[in-house]
Amino acid sequence: MLGCGTVGSQVVRLLGEHAADLQARAGARLELVGIAVRDTAGERAPWVPRELLTDDAAGLVARADVVVELVGGIEPARTLVLQALESGATVVTGNKALLAAHGPALHGAAARGGADLYYEAAVAGAVPVVYGLRESLAGDNVNAVLGIVNGTTNFILDEMATNGLSFDQAVALAQELGYAEADPSADVDGHDAAAKAAILASLAFHTRVSIDDVPVTGIRDVTAEQMAQAAESGHVIKLLAVARLNRDARGISVRVHPALLPATHPLAAVRGAFNAVVVEAESAGRLMFYGQGAGGAPTASAVLSDVVAAAGHKVHGGHAPRESTYAQLPVLGPESTAARTQVQIGLADEPGTLAAVAGIYGDNGVSIESVHQQRSDDGVARITIISHVSTEAALERTVAGLAEEPRVHEVISVTRVEGE
Ligand SMILES: NC(=O)C1=CN([C@@H]2O[C@H](COP(=O)(O)OP(=O)(O)OC[C@H]3O[C@@H](n4cnc5c(N)ncnc54)[C@H](OP(=O)(O)O)[C@@H]3O)[C@@H](O)[C@H]2O)C=CC1
Ligand SMILES: N[C@@H](CC=O)C(=O)O
């Protein structure tokens, strides 16, 4: 094992407590031969066998049949995982950042070394969505994947929606409860979700998708007022990872952003720090994977499922599914990515101003689905406009046009609408 932190220490505990069952399920003897950490003298959970601790990670990799990488980040994880795979050792990892940035290199090394790469824990913790896409749905064609794949941001948005907390208050509470880190950027700016979106899209569409292909908007600009307004109109706001097949454009779109969802959508019911992924497949229809997306024991459960599979294959033969990239669909840009969008603007409450706004929409080929105007007492009307499906590029031009229109005081928010 490489790493013995939040997840690694729970893997060690469960490996010890359930050794007999895990070995029986694998049909193989499982022996933990070493645990590489940064600080071998540091405090550890009482069940961690101190005699197995080492700071020589490369030396440990050289003598293991199965390497469980729970260090996180890019280096030294990348070098160690490549070393393991190239020498034929199976790798089990929960490292979404590494997979989303260097997936092709890792799969290439696995192919060269005749090795297997397992990564159930990399997306949505305990929720078996990697297995679901990689194996259960191998006989189907996926049309779309929509997921709440970051528990911290779902907790923050849920607190804002249900308890009226401001963004800052909700982040502070998430930190107090151990969901958010001292620096919450990776979660609140959407980077963690983007890495998971890239992995899900790669699996769903048999295409290499890297984190650099995923446009990201985090949740910093979502306000308690927006959450309350969403509720008034029967919606919730969730940070979604969205990956869609566009048959007409023969490509896929992948993105992460806050989105309005109808309160009746299955993802709207996902509360607190839970994760859920909805997969829409041609024959299976809609499937939903739901559960704990983070935390030591839930994530260790996913790691151990991979360890059991890996050990079974080592002893009895067989392999993890190879990387499937035969479709290699292009990842579409904003000119070919379709979305429905809600735009809120502050507008001079004067004759003709709404017509000017409608003109900007029309000139950019974006069709308006609904308009709601709030009563104004100060001469500035707040208008909420939802458009029919348009391309993201046309919508971006519309928003730019609105921002230049002198009678539009402010573009307050631009939010995607999903799930209707
Ligand atoms: N935490 C969670 O809920 C989830 C985590 N994951 C993923 O699992 C992985 C592990 O996460 P987590 O357990 O939270 O991470 P932690 O930060 O809690 O633990 C990291 C471990 O890696 C060790 N480590 C760091 N650098 C080195 C190094 N250079 N050489 C050897 N060991 C090193 C640390 O050693 P030391 O103890 O000495 O500091 C520590 O034991 C990450 O990829 C993460 O994204 C996935 C899903 C959920
Ligand atoms: N920070 C993540 C957990 C790890 O994947 C989250 O909040 O979901």
From TrEMBL:
Family note: Belongs to the homoserine dehydrogenase family.
Annotated residues for binding of L-homoserine: 181
CDD domains named in the record: ACT_HSDH-Hom
A molecular-function term among this protein's GO annotations: homoserine dehydrogenase activity
Name of the protein in question: Homoserine dehydrogenase
Domain of life: Bacteria
Binding residues annotated for NADP(+), in chain numbering: 2-9
Gene3D superfamilies linked to this entry: 3.30.70.260, Dihydrodipicolinate Reductase, domain 2, NAD(P)-binding Rossmann-like Domain
Pathway the protein acts in: Amino-acid biosynthesis; L-threonine biosynthesis; L-threonine from L-aspartate: step 3/5; Amino-acid biosynthesis; L-methionine biosynthesis via de novo pathway; L-homoserine from L-aspartate: step 3/3
Cofactor: a metal cation
Main enzyme class: oxidoreductase
InterPro entries given in the database record: ACT-like_dom_sf (IPR045865), ACT_dom (IPR002912), Asp/hSer_DH_NAD-bd (IPR005106), HDH (IPR016204), HDH_cat (IPR001342), HDH_CS (IPR019811), NAD(P)-bd_dom_sf (IPR036291)
One example of a Gene Ontology biological process annotation: methionine biosynthetic process
Reaction(s) the record says it catalyses: L-homoserine + NADP(+) = L-aspartate 4-semialdehyde + NADPH + H(+); L-homoserine + NAD(+) = L-aspartate 4-semialdehyde + NADH + H(+)
Binding-site residues, NADPH: 96
Catalytic machinery residues: 196
EC number of this enzyme: 1.1.1.3
Task of the protein: Catalyzes the conversion of L-aspartate-beta-semialdehyde (L-Asa) to L-homoserine (L-Hse), the third step in the biosynthesis of threonine and methionine from aspartate.
ACT domain ranges (all copies): 342-419
